[in-house]
C-alpha cells in the first residue's frame, strides 16, 4: 500500500476513469463517456451520432469526468481532465462553446433556462459562464468564466440546480453539502448561502433533487461514502431521514416482506457482494451514484461493491427513506453510473472504466437496462424491475455495438472482473483521502527547512 | 515570554500555573491546505459545549428542556494564536460565550492550559472562553449555525505574500460567503494587520462582498472592542514595540438587497 501511495502521485496515468452515462430528459438520445471518448446514440434516428466542432477538436484529449444534459435537453455538456468544458446542442450535436478551465474539472451543470453553464474545478471553485442563445460557435474574445462560489480546498463531486432554479447544490469530499441561492445576476457570484446540509460522515458522492406531488417545494437526496442515502429539506437544511444501505441487517423491506425471503431471492446478489471482501480492495458500501424520477416515486442507488442496483422508496410527508429492493445484475457487474428515462420508465446502468497505462489504453463498458419500473411502482405481481435482454434494449444491437464495442458478444469474465477492480480503485482514489502512516508523513517532510535544523533546537 | 515566571507558586496546584510559552513553541505558519488529523463535529449540534464551558452547563443541568435556551457561542477569534484577545474580551462580556480557533497543535494546547489556569486562579471568571484546534477555513459551518455569531475576529492573519499563495489567505471573496453565513445580520467582522498590502486586500474583499458594509467612523471610534485589536494579542504588542503601522477593516454583516439585477 505504501508503494502504491508513492507511485500513485507520479503515475496519474495508471488511474482509471469510471464510465459515465447520461440520458436525454425526453429520451431522444443517450451519451456514454469512457475515458476521453464521448459516444452518443440517437434513439429517434436509431443510429450513432457524429460529434462536430468547428473551432476545436470534437474530442476531449483526456478523461471525461462529468457529463449532463441541461435546459430540458436542448444542451449537453462534457468536461474533464483536459480542462475543457464543451457545450453541445443536442439537435445537431455540434459543439457551440468550449470553455477553458485552469484546473481539471470534476462536475458540471447547466441552468434550466440554458443561459449559464457552471463547472467545478479540482480546487473546489465553481465557475460560471454565460451562454448566448443563438451562439453559432463564434468565440467571444472577452468572455471568460468567473467564480461563482467555492468549497475551500475540497473536491466538488456533484453540482445540481434545484428544479425551481432558485438554488444550486454542491457536494464535496469533506462531507459537506452547500445550498446556495442562485441569484438573478449570477456573474457577480452566488454569495448568499441558504444552508449547509451536514450529517454525512464521509465524502458525499452524488446529489439529486425530487419534487413529490402534494409538496410545495422540492427535496434533496444525497449518497455518500458513509454507506447512507439521506433525504434533506434543503431550504431549511434539515435532515429528514437517513437510509443505511451498508448493513445487511437493515434490509427491512417497506412492503412488509421479511428479510429472510428477501435475502433468499437475491442470494446471489448478496453473496456476490460479500465475495468482494476477499479481494485486495476492501468491500465498501459507498454510494457512487443516485438517480430518481422527478416525482420521487423511484430512487435508484449504485453502491460500490454491490453487483446490482439498490432501489429505494421515498415517502416525503412521512419523512421516510427505505430500501425497497435490490436488483442483482450479474457477477462482476459493478455499476459506475445510472441514467433514468423518466417517461419510458427505464433505468440505464453502466459499468466501465478507461485505464490508461504504459502498455496502452484499455477500455471496457457494459450497459444494462432495467425496465418495467412502472410495474414495480404499482406493486404488480412479478419480479420487477426486469433486466432487458440485449435485443430488447432501445437502440438494440446498434447501440450496444457503439457503446460496448464488439466485446459484448463474447463476455470476457476476467476482463469484466479486472474492470470492476479498476473502477473501485479509481473511485477510492478520487474520493477518499490518502492516509499516510506516521513514518511516511515524517518521510514526506524531510525536505522542510525547520526539520533539517530540528536537532539543534532545545 | 518570561512574564509568566512571576506567577507565585501556590503549593502543588499545577493548574494555577500559567503555561510557559517556551514549551509550546511552534512555527508561525501552518498549512491550511493540508487535511485534518483532528476531530471535526459533523454539525453544529455536535459541538461539545459541556467540555468547553462546563460552568454554563452546570446552572441549567436540572432542566433538560432548557437545552434550546442555553447560550450559544457568539464570538469567534479565527487564528487566535496564544489567546490574548479572548483573555481580554472575557471580562468585558462575561455572559457571552467565545471561542478561539487555532490550526497549530502546540499553540492551541497552550491556550487550553492558559484558560484552565486562569479559571483555577480566578474562580467564576474566564468560564466563557475556550479554544478548539481546527481548520476554520474548511470547517467553520460545522461549528456554527446560520446567523449564530455576532462578532468574528481576524487579527494579524498570515499575509501569504506570494501571488500564488493568495488563495490561502483567510479573507477572500469566497470565504466571506461562509463568514457571512455564520454571522447574524448586524454582526461585526473585525480585521487588523500590520501589512499594508494585506490590509488593502481585506478591505477590498469586504467592500466587494454584497453582504458586508463598512461601519461608520463614529461607530468605529465608540466600539470598545476596536481598541483591543491592536493591543490585546502578542502579535499586536510586537507590532507596537517595533513601531509598526496597523490597518483596520471593520465591517457589518448586512441583509442582502433585493435582487433586481
How would you portray this structure in words?
- The complex is a heterodimer of chains A (458) and B (261).
- Chain A is an alpha+beta fold and 458 residues long.
- Chain A contains eight helices and 29 strands.
- In chain A, 15% of the residues lie in helices and 39% in strands.
- In chain A, strands 1, 26, 27, 28 and 29 form a five-stranded antiparallel beta sheet that branches. In chain A, strands 2-3-4-5 form a four-stranded antiparallel beta sheet, with helices on one face.
- In chain A, a hairpin with a 4-residue loop joins strand 24 and strand 25.
- Chain A is globular and about 70 Å long.
- The two termini of chain A are 36 Å apart.
- Mean pLDDT of chain A is 80; it is low at 1-13 and 249-282.
- Chain B has one domain: Rossmann fold (3-Layer(aba) Sandwich), CATH 3.40.50.
- In chain B, 34% of the residues lie in helices and 17% in strands.
- Chain B has a seven-stranded mixed beta sheet with strand order 3-2-1-4-5-7-6, sandwiched between helices.
- In chain B, strand 2, helix 4 and strand 3 form a beta-alpha-beta unit.
- Mean pLDDT of chain B is 85; it is low at 1-14.
- Chains A and B meet through strand 13, strand 16 and strand 17 of A and helix 5 and helix 6 of B.
- Chain B: It comes from Dendrobium catenatum.
- Chain B: Belongs to the class I-like SAM-binding methyltransferase superfamily. TrmB family.
- Chain B: One of its GO terms (molecular function) is tRNA (guanine(46)-N7)-methyltransferase activity.
- Chain B: Its EC number is 2.1.1.33.
